[in-house]
Design a protein that fits this description.
heterodimer, A: globular, B: about 180 residues, alpha+beta, about 50% helix
């Protein structure tokens, strides 16, 4: 070796977190404008979402009046679309908390302009997620039996079963996400109150703003409370999907009975949520002209997160298969190595592999990480692929277990499809409502970030 | 005279000053600290933690509140499970121990988080006395920009008009865009 030092190649310029942002007043006016008048295309989208929501209601009505028999579920495949939809939606929610809470704790500045969208996604996904287990109860009107309440019957839920764990996890997750989201909104609702045209709107936003004035003492406590909620939401990202995965892994079924499930599910959850975030964020960014505050830096970072979580997920797929093979168990090996790739849902397995394992590797290229069309299509593929993954794990594993004489397959009915497509409709309906009436970019955080960036420019960038 | 106007009128006069930037506000607050003014308050569209020191604001105690909430949540969640499954309705499923600690851990963890989060959120509302439907500042039209792009500073009543005029001059020198005397003079 010679002692010479090779010259380092020049660092490629990093896209800024925000650029060409107008002053705070213009910025506020621009970001609140969609809350005063509906933008073009809002009504058509709202009506389409509404139609799908009606489909959801129809599916639920049939389920309530005729029972689970109206679904394609059978024995052995007692869990299929319903639980798949549940796991899928709750997984999607995880990316919102990841972005808003995890990245806040890690002091990642770029989260400021996208966290509100991500948190809204979490809450609306959780609304859907919490509906499916209730629909699946058989007698959904007794859902409150899962809660520990002092009943005259003297019967309590069995906390050694995983289902009450789910109830605890989901209700906690929903409550904490809602509080976190709302607390973040309060200063922006105060801006909306002070900018709103007309007394009625001033009053409505005023009520929701809780009388926030931005006093020094208000901010002093707010900062701590917001940080605390972020810190509390962070372990939820880990714990909720871990608990969901225990619904499967504490059973004996090959394909479910695996110790890798908690981390495997958590990674998949964040992965699917980031994919859906792209599908929501890219149109919002384009329609509302938010390119200055949701910059290429954001797209680049989310694509990198997808690359990381996608690779971790692929590793989990391999581990899952390896574990089955290494166990030496005949049925385990059959379930994972033969039934999955070549069984009744073999085609779905290969489609899933293509969508979830191959797609993220597009993002090794910087050009593709900032290409909105590529990002949107990749998001869509991963979004669908992650639904397929849950279906393959849940229904696929159930089709063939220990006893070949009781093997069977599942085929969805129109009710199954109505509930799946309808839940997407309800999500869109809620999301459009949110875009119409709630400040969807965190104004106070973006203004603070702008102030910090300007200050850094004067003082020189900090490490 | 409306009730709100009457409320405003009975308030002691306050001096409000508007600043165009956070830096100007911070500079003014530091100046007032040096001049030993008491009871100064600021209103900003985003968090400006730099004013906390000069205004003499202490650390927020909400961390303790949340911690206490977490302990209450933990005890409640574990307690409910123990009461239900060990004491009130013991269920022998496959000969497993009735008091199954590992199975109770998960819901207890969620209960801890829930208790802490509720305590942090509602603790904040209680500490700040929110929700509040009206505050004096609502009566000043220009003050609406305090949540948008202006930085306001409020000073309490003064012993004399002369003192107030002096403070006003100080604030103007510090870069206040405008000053407003509010309340019954």
């Amino acid at each position: 070796m010679t002692g010479g030092v090779l010259p380092m190649p020049a660092e490629p310029p990093v896209a800024p977190v925000m650029h060409d942002v107008p002053d705070d007043g213009v910025l506020t006016t621009q970001l609140l404008a969609p809350n005063w008048t509906p933008s073009r295309g809002w009504w058509p989208l709202f009506l389409i979402s509404g139609a799908f929501t009606v489909l959801f209601v129809v599916g639920m009505t049939v389920t309530f009046t005729r029972g689970i028999g109206s679904w394609g579920n059978n024995i052995p495949v007692a869990w299929a679309y319903g639980i798949t939809d549940f796991v899928w939606w709750i997984g999607i929610g995880h990316a919102g908390t990841f972005i808003s809470a995890f990245l806040l704790l890690l002091n990642q500045r770029w989260r400021a302009s996208v966290n509100r969208l991500a948190e809204a996604m979490t809450i609306f996904a959780l609304v859907n997620a919490s509906l499916f287990p209730i629909l699946h109860l058989g007698r959904p009107w007794f859902f409150y039996w899962l809660m520990p309440y002092p009943a005259t019957t003297g019967v309590w839920p069995n906390f050694k079963s995983s289902l009450p764990w789910d109830v605890a996890a989901i209700s906690t997750y929903f409550t904490v996400s809602l509080l976190f989201w709302y607390l973040g909104l309060v200063p922006d609702l105060a801006s909306a109150r002070d900018q709103a045209p007309g007394l009625l709107r001033r009053r409505i936003y005023g009520i929701f703003a809780l009388g926030w004035r931005g006093r020094a003492v208000e901010w002093q406590h707010y900062r701590v409370a917001y940080g605390l909620l972020a810190g509390l939401a962070t372990p939820l990202v880990i714990s909720v999907h871990s608990i969901v995965s225990l619904d499967f892994s504490i059973t004996q079924l090959p394909g479910w009975h695996s110790t890798i499930f908690p981390p495997y599910f958590v990674v998949g959850a964040i992965y699917s949520g980031l994919a859906m975030l792209l599908m929501l964020m890219l149109p919002v960014r384009r329609i509302f002209g938010l390119e200055q505050i949701i910059t290429e830096k954001h797209l680049d970072n989310i694509a990198k997160l997808i690359l990381v979580t996608g690779t971790m997920l692929a590793y989990s797929y391999i581990c899952e298969m390896f574990g089955a093979w290494y166990s030496g168990e005949t049925v385990e090996r059959y379930s994972m190595l033969i039934n999955r790739p070549f069984g009744p849902y073999g085609v779905l397995f290969w489609a899933m592999t293509l969508m979830n394992v191959v797609t993220p590797h597009l993002f090794w290229w910087k050009r593709l990480r900032v290409d909105t069309v590529v990002l949107f299509i990749a998001g869509l593929l991963i979004w669908v692929g992650m639904w397929l993954e849950r279906f393959i794990i849940i229904a696929g594993s159930l089709t063939r277990d220990f006893l070949p004489s009781s093997w069977g397959v599942f085929a969805p009915t129109w009710v199954d499809w109505s509930l799946l497509l309808g839940s997407i409709g309800l999500f869109s309906l809620l999301f459009l409502t949110f875009l119409r009436w709630v400040p969807f970019v965190p104004l106070s955080e973006v203004k603070r970030l702008r102030y910090e960036l300007q200050r850094d420019q004067i003082a020189g960038p900090r490490a | 005279m409306s009730v709100r106007a009457m409320l405003g009128a009975t308030q002691t006069p306050r001096l409000l000053a508007e600043f165009g930037s956070a830096d100007a506000l911070v500079a003014a607050v530091r100046l007032l600290e040096r001049e030993a003014y008491q009871g100064v308050d600021t209103f900003t569209p985003f968090d400006v933690p730099e004013v906390a020191g000069p205004l003499g604001l202490g650390r927020s105690g909400l961390g303790w509140v949340a911690g206490l909430g977490g302990v209450v949540g933990l005890v409640a969640a574990y307690g409910i499970q123990w009461w239900a499954n060990v004491h009130s309705y013991p269920l022998n499923a496959g000969g497993r121990p009735v008091h199954a600690v590992p199975a109770f851990v998960l819901a207890s963890f969620e209960g801890t988080i829930l208790g802490a989060a509720l305590a942090a959120f509602f603790g904040l509302l209680i500490v700040l006395r929110l929700p509040r439907l009206w505050s004096v500042e609502d009566e000043v039209e220009e003050f609406r920009r305090a949540s948008v792009d202006r930085f306001w500073l409020a000073m309490p009543s003064f012993a004399s008009d002369h003192d107030r005029a002096h403070a006003e001059e100080l604030l103007r020198d510090a870069g206040a865009v405008r000053t407003i005397v509010f309340g019954k003079v």
